[in-house]
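Problem 3 from the worked examples.
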Amino acid sequence: MKGFGRGLIVFLATGAYSGYFPFMPGTVGTVVGILFFIMFSLFSLPLYLLTTVAFIALAVWVSERAERIFAKKDASEIVIDEIAGFLVTMAVVPAGWKYVAAGFVLFRVFDIWKPYPANRINERMSGGAGVVLDDIVAGLYANLVLQVTRFI
């Protein structure tokens, strides 16, 4: 892949180049995820969910191609998966800053820890699905904690 197509894949995969941050690129990519959440939080719930599912599909497709460009499995520069995972974290969660901060911390903890089945996905799946799905699981775990704590 050459030219504009390659540049677009790199731009998307790296979260507008935030994945090139010299340390903790996944955390910086999650900050980009906050920006996406702020935009998506303006949508109705059905549109938020539909857009998030479409974003996850885009993330899988882009990550598949980005792995070939970076010639590395789940290259650290690829952070579109963190953006997708954070959108899952914040699904059906109020847009207040306390929830965003808690969601950020919880998502990063689960993304780094990779509790089952995220660890299995990370170990056994390859390609775009392998890059993205462990972050979706981390997002689901973080979302579950947020949902439980909302009502306590």
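Problem 4, a separate protein:
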Amino acid sequence: MTDGDLVRQTLAGRTAAYGELARRWSARILALCHAKAGRAHCEDLAQESLLRGFRALATLSEPEKFGPWLRGIAVRVCLDWLKARQTHQVSFGSMGDHSPEDSLADARCAPDEQVDHSEQLALLMNEVQSLPEEYREVLLLYYYQDATYRDLAEQLGVSSATINARLTKARAMLRERLRPKVPLVGRVE
């Protein structure tokens, strides 16, 4: 069943069809929100995007283009959030964000490895967030979705060669940025 079929079913009153659309697109929207707004708020922004998509579904003129349409909504949700964030202070509660996935990963490591792993992950994510948007977006979408270059090219409206070039450039930028910051283990001087 295509996205267009599910859109038409939802508009005909079968709201469970939108649940299937949400399942199909949630990872991609989550990755986009992560790329635009960062890890701490990406889940909330992705949920807001899916909710806005549901509420505005009747405005979608071409049901087969649901994915790009929803992606546009997610971009606007992130931009709205970023604008609002610039005019508001950060709450104390958000300063201690630590996801359940981090806790599970940390529990599998020895205490000294937990600190090292957490530091390396934080360093990597900071560098990913500092990449120019076109590289950050394709990198996060690629690793969140485990999608092919062709899928990403279609989703982003560029060629597969452009996806390849952006991923290659993003990885090279990360290697260069992380090289001097990561200590060499076991090196004798």
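Solution to problem 4. The CA atoms of residues 40 and 98 lie 8 Å apart. Residues 88-109 have pLDDT under 50 and may be disordered.
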